Amino acid sequence: MLATEKPAYKTRTHTIRHRLYRALETSYGKRRGVNLYFNLILVTVISLNALAIVLHTVPAYNLKYEKLFYDFELFSVTFFTIEYLLRIWVCVENEKYQHPVKGRLRYIFSTSAIIDFLAIFPFFFTLFAADLAIIRILRLFRIFRLFRISRYSHAFRMIQHAVADRKEELVLSVVLIVFMLIIVSSLMYYVEHNVQPKLFSSIPATMWWGVTAMTTVGYGDIYPITPLGKLLGGLVAIMGVGLFALPTGILVSGFLDHVRTTKTASQKRFCPHCGKEL
Amino acid sequence: MLATEKPAYKTRTHTIRHRLYRALETSYGKRRGVNLYFNLILVTVISLNALAIVLHTVPAYNLKYEKLFYDFELFSVTFFTIEYLLRIWVCVENEKYQHPVKGRLRYIFSTSAIIDFLAIFPFFFTLFAADLAIIRILRLFRIFRLFRISRYSHAFRMIQHAVADRKEELVLSVVLIVFMLIIVSSLMYYVEHNVQPKLFSSIPATMWWGVTAMTTVGYGDIYPITPLGKLLGGLVAIMGVGLFALPTGILVSGFLDHVRTTKTASQKRFCPHCGKEL
Amino acid sequence: MLATEKPAYKTRTHTIRHRLYRALETSYGKRRGVNLYFNLILVTVISLNALAIVLHTVPAYNLKYEKLFYDFELFSVTFFTIEYLLRIWVCVENEKYQHPVKGRLRYIFSTSAIIDFLAIFPFFFTLFAADLAIIRILRLFRIFRLFRISRYSHAFRMIQHAVADRKEELVLSVVLIVFMLIIVSSLMYYVEHNVQPKLFSSIPATMWWGVTAMTTVGYGDIYPITPLGKLLGGLVAIMGVGLFALPTGILVSGFLDHVRTTKTASQKRFCPHCGKEL
Amino acid sequence: MLATEKPAYKTRTHTIRHRLYRALETSYGKRRGVNLYFNLILVTVISLNALAIVLHTVPAYNLKYEKLFYDFELFSVTFFTIEYLLRIWVCVENEKYQHPVKGRLRYIFSTSAIIDFLAIFPFFFTLFAADLAIIRILRLFRIFRLFRISRYSHAFRMIQHAVADRKEELVLSVVLIVFMLIIVSSLMYYVEHNVQPKLFSSIPATMWWGVTAMTTVGYGDIYPITPLGKLLGGLVAIMGVGLFALPTGILVSGFLDHVRTTKTASQKRFCPHCGKEL
User: What ipTM was predicted for this assembly?
Assistant: First the structure.
């Protein structure tokens, strides 16, 4: 029947596209069959890419294996390009991107698709050019998406939720850190500038001292030498201890909230008297 | 009627002053209308001031944009002075400062008004003089007052309450840190003074080592070289780990208390049997 | 009557000694009257002593105020000696040290009395001798006893209890740190010794690197330069992050336990049905 | 009777072997009698071994006490070899290794037996050879097994359980750290390579900077000098603060879970109305 022909065509397309969609998808849950194998290959290619990006900068390896690096880059880009195009084709299987044109456009401008795109486009402009090579590092970010399919997916989600729950507090503590940084660096500039005019040349230059002092890194390339500067430096270092306490405290309360919530759901208690939930 | 004339006058004054008061106030809660716009302008001016204070110390920018810096300073001080005078005028609208004279005097000596005053007065003595420029940094502190109107007001209050709840424990841990600092620096002075008389010249000088060692900053400008000094230095560094644990532990218990209290209030449980609160 | 004369005498002695005991005691609780004033004087003398010990090592002050330092030392030792003798006299008022001889002997060998003794005895051997001056630092430890009379007594006890509750876990984590220190220093010695024989001269010498690396102090006087050494150094640094997490986690659980226990006592809940405790 | 003869023989063997097994075993619980003394001797020998391994590398001691070191090494290896062989003989007393051949083979390839073997085998190849001496450090790992018999066994188990409960989250945070390390080191390489080509020679070389910056060690042998590099370095240092917060938060929630679980078991509450567990 003609009436069913089109649905049949649609169903066939649907079947191939749907299978492919299910093979490519990286949502939470246990992997099986084609999806498992495809994702294992993807993790391997991304990991080898990370290794290639890192080792490519070692002069000894670069000279010796230049051909290999080039071939692997060619293979990677081909692989990622095909994967990218396939994802755009099958994305309409996802409820969020159902419309053939609008849905696909929205998918193309989603964060994960942009990362996928940035991972391949520099290749088409220039090969192994140092000035664009930096963008290839973005490929590394792809691996974060794959955590969710690993056996660590539960742990990853727990950390993700704890951080998301306390996002505002964490952002605020970073803002507070930046503010304290400006204030202590300004003070230190006026204290040390006259004695060490080259190192503490301006407030922005002093902020390099500020950030290494507050985070207790302390490289030793810049530090106060006047008694007042040392007093201020000591106060900043002690303040830095509190700086570590703040995000830790926030994150701990986030973790505990999540743990408690998870438990409450599975450990509901019922009144032994009337049977109603307590 | 003459009897209503004065109230009418009062009401008029009240209306203008009250409107202005509501436009300027920065207490917690959602902003709307004039108040929102005024506070946005205030945040912008203060932020640009911070930027100007920081960039003004960079010789390259200072030479190039000297006129701009001067004009912006003039504008800022005018803006802050008008704002300061208006705040003194309208402060009587606040229940705490109702009396026209006594209330205003009390307002002038409140912490926030003093910070506002310190932000403007250096200008009237000397312009861009390095010795008073340091006081202009106080303007940066003004920004903390504005956190409460942002979308982070909830997070800010949570951190504020957690810190306030554990204020005594936090002060005490700072006191303990200072005490341990005096003790370990005294010991280190007697251990290292003979070998490194220039660096470990006195106990106060050794305290610079002490604070960088306990807070694990470790600039590398001063460190023990004798075996006994290294042993003591190692113990101090390990003690420093505990030093981070103390305020973190205190702050975490503060955060959790606050979270728990907030929850208990909204999640009161009632006995399903008799309806009374459990 | 002769029969009452002795009791009267005893009572009189008791009265003076008991009053003095109550004036000197530093157990927990609110201070009032003589006890408050005496303890304030004691805190002042101990604090000034700490200041004198610290400033005495600064050559400029030592030359200028030598007489003042000497006089203050003379006054301090006299003050502490009288206080020490009085404490021995009145200690029998305390239930723990009731026996005139055995009780007093036991008091003399109590930790706090030994600290009191060590604070004064060096003076009687030599005055301001550098080799014994170190013992004068012990006077600083006296101040810890005085925390309990301050307004921070509650906070001090809370920290004290949290630490005491988790003493075994904290001791164990220090032991684990020392073990890991021995292991990583031994490994690093075999890795770096051939390349940097002067710095990594032996395992004990390498432990100085180990402790500054694990505690993230990193002075920069000793660090690995071979690729394998840097790999090991990096692992040790990341391990050091966990090192901070362990005592912090232990202390936090200690704080929370204490908070929870305190609360449970005051927030007992009763069944609204039968009135019994829930 | 012949029928009982074999059992009698078996029982006798069993008795000796069983006694020896009970003397050697190091499972949790209070030690008594032979087992206590044997384990004390074992702890002493292992501790002295650790000391010998450490001090043997100090040239001064090595020359002076060469004979002593050699004799103690000979004694240690003999002691450990006998202990190792005895453990293989008696292991069949353990339910897990009952079979005389298969059980023993499985025991030999258990983690603890492999550590025991590695502690002795280097001796039989070469004495005090530097290239194998490194394996002797493995003897130190033996001491971890002995924590469980000490008075800290409860604390050790608590830490062990808290870490085991959160193993996946802790592994994941190490993986996240390594990922961030690769990303920030790659970025820093492209930023600083042109200005400091010797220090930031390749991405692997830059990772040494990355790990000392993220963990706030900061030796000061390598650090950015360009403004962009300093900006990135500052962000990495602040990110490092979060790095400490993550495992701490995970471990704290692990500790609290364990504490809560332990408590719930012993603090079950019962409904005063009907007697059933609440």
Answer: 0.81
